[in-house]
Design brief:
Elements: H1 20-30, E1 34-39, E2 45-51, E3 72-78, H2 84-99, E4 109-114, E5 125-131
Antiparallel strand pairs: 1-2, 3-5, 4-5
Length: 133
């Protein structure tokens, strides 16, 4: 038996901009516990999943986390992953001290806005969110 023998050939999907009510409605309509989150022009790419199931400890380092509400500094990084570290150095080493802001005791998180292969690697866009007090 192969994965294709078990999978749904035309699954219901949601987009990153869909609200929680839409995601829950999709899960109820399809009587399932997981909905792929897709985006892209033309061919859709899975960028995440929404689930109402428990995520068990695993070797892939997939964790359940709640994205904190409140104020955030947002830095838009455009370019390859090679320059991503420099963006973080700027955010913490330059912007944060000059801003007078204080980070919350919460990790930063990222949202990939545009990415390879939908755009050339040097045009990839990632928003970096730094939770603030």
């Amino acid at each position: 038996m192969k994965a294709r023998d078990l999978m749904t050939s035309d699954p219901t999907t949601c987009r990153p901009s869909d609200n929680l009510k839409s995601v829950i409605s999709a899960m109820r309509k399809e009587d399932c516990g997981m909905v792929p989150i897709t985006e892209g022009n033309g061919e859709q790419r899975v960028t995440g999943v929404a689930t109402d199931r428990d995520v068990v400890p695993n070797d892939a380092r997939i964790l359940v986390r709640t994205i904190p509400g409140g104020r955030h500094a947002v830095l838009r990084h455009v370019g390859t992953e090679d320059s991503f570290g420099a963006a973080l150095v700027y955010l913490y080493g330059t912007w944060l001290p000059q801003s007078g802001e204080e980070p919350r005791d919460s990790p930063l998180y990222c949202q990939r806005v545009r990415f390879f292969p939908d755009v050339p690697e040097h045009e990839a866009v990632t928003d970096i969110f730094l939770p603030l007090k």
